[in-house]
Amino acid sequence: MDPSPETLLDLHRRMVRIRHFEEAAGRLAEQNRLPGFLHLYVGEEAVAAGVCANLDDDDQISSTHRGHGHLVAKGGDYSGMMAELMGKATGYCGGKGGSMHICDLDLGMLGANGIVGGGVPIAVGAGFANKYRGSDRVSVVFFGDGASNIGAFHEAANMAAALSLPVLFVCENNEYGEFTPRDRTMAITDVVDRAAGYGMPGAIVDGMDVVAVWEAANEAVSRARRGEGPSFIEAKTYRFYNHHGVQTLGMKYRSDDELEQWKQRDPIELFEDRLATAGVLDADGAQAAHDAAEADIEAAIAFAEESPLPDPDNLLVDVYTPAAYSGAIS
Amino acid sequence: MTPPADTDARRIAYGAAFTEGLAQMMDADPNVFVAGEDVGRAGGVFGSFRGLNERFGDMRVVDTPISEQAIVGLGTGAAVSGLRPVVDVMFMDFMLVAMDQIVNQAAKLKYMFGGKATLPMTITTSAGAGLSAAAQHSQSLEAMLCHIPGLKVVMPSNPYDAKGLLISCIRDDNPTVFVKHKRLLGLKGDVPEDLYEIPLGTAQVVRPGDDVTVVTYGRMVHEATSAADALAAEGIECDVIDLRSLQPLDMDTVVQSAQRTSRVAVVHEAVRFGGFGGEIASQIAEEAFDYLDAPIERVGAPFSPVPFSPVLEKEWVPNAEMIGERIRALAAA
Question: Could you report the predicted ipTM of this complex, rounded to two decimals?
Answer without folding.
Answer: 0.95
